[in-house]
């Protein structure tokens, strides 16, 4: 199967000289068109760094990122701008206020990327914005509101609609529900499960919480201290986790196991992890 996204041996460091710290140690990961994959790792493991590298925002020191047949990691500033304008790869942040301007209406916010990309008349942009809003289950009467007049769950849906309006091939969703309360979290995850499947949009869910993405992904990749330590179908990862860190994740996710592993077992797994690293 030809891959939509191919991350191959990516290394990223921050700082220089003595202060240099390697964050990603040769990460490889691929996604096919329409596939839904979870990238799971604890805080500081390098998830956002990997997302930023895929977007071409962070420079890699080794390896490559290919997307939709193009080597993104090799693009110069100008080519990168044009790649971003194309909208083929969209990023949804944990906090919707990071992608939404507080003074801009929902209508203009969703239409902005389309206007920047060009090629559509103003009425076409408006129609696409309305359709995108409807596709995330929100009514058209929200179009005239600004983000401060929306609930947290509505804001995140608007941020998703804004990304969808550009008809991307891949959505990078960085902790898309962790800022939401429990009820909104379930609703937005429910939306994300089916969203884009008809159009073959691939989704990469980035999260520290295996439980919250298990129901929406085909595969899971586990990132631990800058290395992908395990990749497999979501079902296999949950039923037969191999790496000690994955076992700890599965054991801690009470929603998956109905109870989680007991304290003593978690202590053993933490010890195994310490021995591992
Ligand atoms: N611009 C930067 N300069 C220096 N160090 C950075 C920079 N960005 C991130 N880091 C460091 O790189 C490591 C990985 O950070 P990253 O944000 O990728 O982790 P993460 O897995 O996304 O964590 P979280 O779940 O907390 O968001 C952390 O130790 C962080 O402090």
TrEMBL record:
Molecular function via GO: ATP binding
Residues covered by the ABC transporter domain: 5-250
Organism: Herbiconiux daphne
Keywords: ATP-binding, Nucleotide-binding, Transport
Family: Belongs to the ABC transporter superfamily.
SUPFAM superfamilies: P-loop containing nucleoside triphosphate hydrolases (SSF52540)
Pfam family, one: ABC_tran
Protein name as it appears in the record: ATP-binding cassette domain-containing protein
